[in-house]
Amino acid sequence: MATARLHLPPVPDSIVGATLKTIVVIIWTVFAMRLNRVILGQLAKGDSPLVDQRMRPLFDNVGRIIFFAVAVYFVFVLWGINVSAWLASAGVIGIAFGFAAKDSLANLISGVFILGDAPYKVGDYINLDTGERGEVIRIGLRSTRILTRDDVEVTIPNALIANGKIVNESGGPSKIQRIRVSVGVAYGTDVDKFCDILHDIGRDHPDVLKDPVPRSRFRRFGDSSLDFDLLCWIRTPDLRGRVIHELNTAIYKRLAAEGIEIPYPKRDVYIKQMPNAGKS
């Protein structure tokens, strides 16, 4: 309508017409990118969002790439540029780039799956097949960073994590975690009294939750001991090492005060005959 009012040349493929149409394509592309961001923001809100907050930047960037690629295609068509040759060249370059950067692409794809499947999130304590245990401090498209209990930051490629077993100690409906303290006592020990001692030690610890209450389990008849487990719940996984240490210390001191023996393997040696016993 504007070109008609200005009495511009009616040739549709002229430079003026192509320029005006290119401006229109750019305007609509910017509008589509902004609309995509607004829609994603609305879908990520609420108690049951359709789009996870962690996936929102990924969807936003993918949308921008798609809108930009479509806009470039239409601009090439408007200016009479052969798109087929460019697409063929881009395909060859893409294949070469894929072979050259296959490890990086594997990490990138694994990062997308981790963000989508969400086996863990920032702040969770995880154990990996490679032996690392720590708090997740960052989840990227290429790698995941965890902070170990030694305050050492470890960066792990996402491809290694995606192909291995992940134990999320903070997973489930709650972050509370059950810990297990194993102890053996000598045969002949009053098991009811010993269980009461374990319950008292668990209830008296400030970092052990009162609900669920600490409990004990008689596990097995060992070779030289009656084996028990003290089961307690703690609020967060990072307390596990310190609480187990303090419970072990308290159990040892209490059993020593009560005169209850913690047995250890013993061997009795019988000498049937002394060497050279019949010789003078």
Fold and architecture overview:
The chain has 3 domains: 2-100, Helix Hairpins, CATH 1.10.287; 119-168, SH3 type barrels, CATH 2.30.30.60; 177-258, Alpha-Beta Plaits. The chain contains 8 helices and 8 strands, in the order H-H-H-H-H-E-E-E-E-H-E-E-H-E-E-H. It has helices spanning 2-5, 15-43, 56-78, 83-100, 102-117, 158-162, 191-204, 240-258; strands at 125-128, 133-139, 143-148, 153-157, 166-168, 177-185, 215-221, 226-234. The strands form 2 sheets. The chain has a 5-stranded antiparallel beta sheet. Strands 6-8-7 form a 3-stranded antiparallel beta sheet, with helices on one face. Strand 7 and strand 8 form a beta hairpin. 12% of the residues are buried.
Secondary-structure topology with pairs:
Elements: H1 2-5, H2 15-43, H3 56-78, H4 83-100, H5 102-117, E1 125-128, E2 133-139, E3 143-148, E4 153-157, H6 158-162, E5 166-168, E6 177-185, H7 191-204, E7 215-221, E8 226-234, H8 240-258
Antiparallel strand pairs: 1-2, 1-5, 2-3, 3-4, 6-8, 7-8
Helix pairs in contact: 2-3, 7-8
